[in-house]
Amino acid sequence: MKQFDEISQLVRHINQEMPLYSKDSAKIPHTYQQFPKNIGEYSTKVNDKFLNNNLDRIEELWFRNKNKTFSNWFIKYQTRYFREAISHDGFFKIITQKHRGAYAPQSMLTFSFASLNRKVFGATLETGGTTNHVTGQTGYIQTSSLPAGVVGEFYDEVAQNYFAVAGNYRQCVYNEESGTPGTLYSETGSIAVPAGYVFQSLTEFSLNQTANHVAMQVDSSSAEPYYNLTSGGNFRTWTFGAFENPHTGGTNQDARFNQKVAHT
Fold first, then answer.
1. What stretch of H or E contains 228?
2. Distance CA 118, CA 34 (A)
3. Cis peptide before 225 (omega within 30 of 0)
4. Would you list the domain boundaries of the chain?
5. On the chain, which terminus has fewer CB atoms closer than 10 Å, C or N?
């Protein structure tokens, strides 16, 4: 009964004291002050004050509420807030996944202030491009630096773009250590080279560095991957098979192969 009362009270407070404001309308807590000139700015201040005072209560009830009554209600409120409010204050972030639309709500929503131990799926990271394509890449591990990622965000798939199909290939993702590819996060097995981008599964991992590298191997000199002439590449001799871990040595090169790292 005590927890139910706590939930009811917190839900009432959130509804009353976390105002939603849109382009055309606003709802704010009762006040005897003069109506604010900038309702959006005022709403942000009210929301921030409420969160500063109540975030610990929200987190505690999230974990203690075993039948998920509060958790389920709160996810719905987050979705409503995201859809209806002009969220200049960034109270909620919505976790989106590729193939579902830019703003499709997921079951995993999170505070911008606290993660509540929920996984955050990283945005797709793409390197290289389709300006060039090349054969004769057998006998190497070829790494390409990725755009900056976010430490703690999760990934579980990888893809590479090929102009010509032949043989098999492998991919993996490394973190960066001392400016070069370092420790292996996860790798694929040997897979038939596909035409274009086809995502392959990785054991899920989270980034421990903002700087990371995706790597590839092929076993046929006729396979023709796309690449761009840009710094951030590295190659080292290697017999086709499981990737070196950690990555050592290699030679830097001004070429990055067109690859993506993402989450399903």
1. strand 224-228
2. 40
3. no
4. 2-111, 125-262
5. N
* Least reliable range by pLDDT among 27-31, 115-119, 172-176: 115-119
pTM of the predicted model, to two decimals?
A: 0.59
How far is 166 from 133, CA to CA, in rounded Å? 14
Among residues 177, 156, 263, 175, which one has the least CA distance to residue 215? 175
Number of other CB atoms surrounding residue 90 within 10 Å: 11
Nearest to residue 124, comparing CAs of 193, 78, 173?
Answer: 173
Q: Are the CB atoms for 247 and 145 separated by under 8 Å?
A: no
Domain 125-262: CATH architecture, name and number where available = Sandwich (2.60)
Over 50: is that where the pLDDT of 54 sits? yes
Q: Please state the separation of Cα 70 from the chain's center in Å.
A: 26
The Cα–Cα gap between 255 and 144 comes to 8
The angle at the Cα of 211, spanning 209 to 212, to the nearest 5 degrees, equals 90
pLDDT in tens, 127-186: 999 999 999 999 999 999 999 999 989 999 999 999 999 999 999 999 999 999 999 999
**Which of 158, 151, 81, 90 is CA-nearest to residue 120?**
151
Distance CA 118, CA 111 (A): 10
